[in-house]
Design a protein that fits this description.
The complex is a heterodimer of chains A (265) and B (307).
Chain A (H helix, E strand, L loop, with lengths): L1 E10 L7 E11 L4 E6 L5 H9 L6 E6 L2 E2 L5 H4 L3 E4 L13 H9 L13 H14 L16 H14 L4 E5 L7 H18 L3 E4 L3 H6 L3 E6 L2 E7 H5 L3 H12 L6 H5 L2
Parallel strand pairs in A: 3-8, 3-9, 6-7, 7-8
Antiparallel strand pairs in A: 1-2, 1-4, 4-5, 9-10
Helix pairs in contact in A: 3-5, 5-6
Chain B lengths: L1 H30 L6 H18 L5 H24 L5 H19 L5 E3 L6 H9 L3 H23 L3 H11 L1 H6 L4 H27 L1 E3 L6 H16 L5 H24 L7 H27 L9
Antiparallel strand pairs in B: 1-2
Helix pairs in contact in B: 1-6, 1-9, 1-10, 1-11, 2-3, 2-4, 2-9, 3-4, 3-9, 5-6, 6-11, 7-9, 10-11, 10-12
Classes of the chains: A alpha/beta (265), B mainly alpha (307).
The structure holds adenosine-5'-diphosphate and magnesium ion.
Magnesium ion binds next to helix 1 of chain A.
């Protein structure tokens, strides 16, 4: 469904700030795969998702979705296949616009926008139902400005927006990291529910190793722009946090020095 | 007293005609969050194109309005292309277009900086002759009709799929791109549309004042920003969209009325630009100062505890 072959990316090439962020990524996802991604700070997790979404052009390699080579497509064209939720709750929604207007924008992802109404009254019932599914009471506040919502509510809304039109691939980049633990748990449950119900193919970056093990059917670990561990199925289910730490140390030859991750247990 | 009334009528008429320009500035400044300096040039462009067509080419004044608007659209598109395709910062792109328009406008006017329309019939003089109105009253009627058409158009347009995508671009560019919108396209479109209105306004003012002048747009952007700010102070910011658009034109009217009053009180006309700049600067400074003051007040050494 998604095939990434030998994708490389260096930021600020030829300057003192040169940074090899991706060192040849190879990855194949099957339909319905739900992959969790872990790795230390600066391992290249966000960069990998950004490359798939087309935020920056890649230096070399190939990204293919459903047999279509999207490596050189601009970000807005790839949006046809990809739904995204960012770490920053502010990034996924338009604060000055109404909840229903945000949903209407998302409903048109991947479609050509014309001079028809930006939001049709017939859509509103559908949005109301979809909002009700979130269980946050947002269905009664459809005309509220999104800026009035809490971070957790905005993140849940962004999740709904990313999946309102079923995406071929859902990209989640530490989308619960900015939330308090209780809200984070709620948003994570919603994520699992939506991915399960729509049978989505998804990639989720997390710094919580327990979540990474429990959620999804596959787990990959990144280090210095490479995938250093890739595990799925029964083997993944049996994983322990200690196994992951050990894996990391042998593969990288370093202590796992990410305190955020340790706390994430 | 009669003099005051007449000058106020004239001010209201000018306010409405310039209000079309302010609507253009509103699109870029408030909806798209772009400060577009093309405006000074495209306003004069509209005036020059209109004057030359009506005086030298004997073109129908209504058609001249459309031609002026088209010229404004092109000027906006140039700024838009510089900004989106060549990634020049919007302010600089606007300055480049504005500066080149100075030379272009002079060329359009055949090297003259001012072209009077005294003996030629315009939309406004035609109306005042036909109905026996003063120049100011006729300008007001034309202005109100055009303003209503433009507001209805903008209200419709920004409710469409493309229009919504444009508003969202000004609000959160990352998000709309992730939702499949070509944000270069939406920015280009907004700059184009905005300057089309500015050009139209320049032509209307030209017909109402009965001359085209290459310097007529100088400071237009500041007038536009001041009018937007006045409108917002007056009508508040949390009103429906059609009200916001109306308050933009109302702000412009109030700006010109204030201007007429202070001029009558003996202020030097040349100081008016300084006054406008101060109004805009204050409007931009106050929210920042208020939030800084709040932060300072909320700070306590004891951390989050209430005391
Ligand atoms: N836009 C950018 N410009 C320059 N360097 C970047 C940029 N984005 C990421 N990097 C660098 O690339 C490396 C990988 O970053 P990132 O993918 O954000 O890591 P992770 O998400 O795994 O913490 C880091 O060293 C980071 O500083
Ligand atoms: Mg990251």
């Amino acid at each position: 469904m998604l095939t990434i072959s030998n994708v490389k990316k260096t930021f600020n090439k030829g300057t003192v700030n040169e940074k090899k962020a991706l060192n040849g990524i190879n990855l194949h996802l099957d339909e319905g795969d739900f992959v969790t991604i872990i790795g230390g700070n600066g391992a290249g997790k966000s960069t990998m998702l950004n490359m798939i979404a087309g935020v920056y052009p890649i230096d070399s390699g190939k990204i293919v979705i459903d047999g279509i080579n999207i490596s050189r497509e601009p970000e807005y064209k790839r949006a046809k296949y990809i739904g995204r939720v960012f770490q920053d709750p502010m990034r996924g929604t338009a604060a000055n616009m109404e909840i229903q207007e945000n949903l209407a924008m998302a409903f048109r992802r991947g479609r050509i926008r014309g001079l028809g109404w930006g939001i049709k009254s017939s859509e509103k019932d559908y949005y109301r139902e979809a909002l009700a599914q979130l269980g946050l009471g947002l269905q009664t506040r459809m005309t509220s400005k999104v800026g009035l919502l809490s971070g957790g509510q905005r993140q849940a809304l962004t999740l709904l927006m990313a999946t309102l039109q079923k995406p071929r691939l859902l990209l989640l980049d530490e989308h619960t990291a900015a939330l308090d633990p209780k809200t984070a748990k709620k948003v994570l449950e919603l994520t699992e529910k939506i991915v399960d119900e729509q049978n989505l193919t998804a990639m989720m970056v997390t710094h919580n190793m327990k979540d990474a093990i429990q959620i999804g059917n596959r787990l990959i670990m990144m280090h210095e722009g490479r995938i250093i561990y890739d595990v799925s199925g029964e083997e993944k289910k049996k994983l322990q946090v200690e196994d992951l730490l050990e894996r990391f140390e042998t593969a990288s030859g370093e202590e796992f020095a990410n305190d955020r991750m340790m706390l994430g247990q | 007293m009669n003099g005051l009334l007449a000058s106020l009528q004239g001010a209201v008429a000018q306010g409405i005609l310039w209000g079309i320009m302010v609507l253009g500035v509103y699109i870029t400044f408030r909806l798209m969050d772009i400060a577009d300096l093309t405006v000074d040039g495209s306003f004069a462009l509209g005036a020059c194109v209109c004057a030359v067509l009506v005086v030298n080419k004997q073109v129908n004044p209504v058609i001249a309005l459309f031609a002026a608007m088209a010229a404004g659209l092109v000027a906006g598109a140039v700024t838009g292309l510089l900004h989106t395709i060549f990634e020049i910062p919007a302010i600089l792109a606007g300055i480049l277009t504005q500066i080149s328009l100075w030379s272009i406008n002079l060329r359009i006017m055949g090297g003259k900086s001012n072209l009077p329309l005294l003996k030629t019939e315009t939309l406004i003089s035609g109306l005042s002759d036909a109905l026996g109105l003063t120049q100011a009253q006729a300008s007001m009627i034309v202005g109100i009709i055009v303003a209503i058409i433009v507001i209805v158009f903008l209200y419709w347009f920004f409710g469409t799929e493309i229009g919504s995508a444009m508003r969202a671009t000004g609000n959160n560019e990352d998000m709309v791109r992730a939702l499949g919108v070509n944000t270069k396209m939406t920015k280009l479109l907004s700059l184009t549309l905005s300057n089309g209105l500015v050009g139209l306004s320049g032509a209307l003012v030209c017909q109402s004042q009965k001359y085209g002048d290459v310097g007529s747009g100088t400071g237009a952007i500041v007038i536009g920003l001041a009018a937007i700010v006045i409108g917002e102070v007056l009508m508040g910011r949390l009103t429906p969209f059609y009200w916001k658009l109306t308050s933009v034109v109302a702000g412009s009217v109030i700006y010109f009325v204030i201007r007429a009053l202070v001029l009558r009180m003996g202020m030097n006309a040349n100081d008016m630009k300084l006054l406008s700049a101060i109004i805009v600067a204050l409007a931009l400074c106050i929210p920042v100062a208020v939030s800084k003051y709040r932060l300072k007040k909320e700070y306590s050494e004891g951390g989050e505890e209430e005391c």
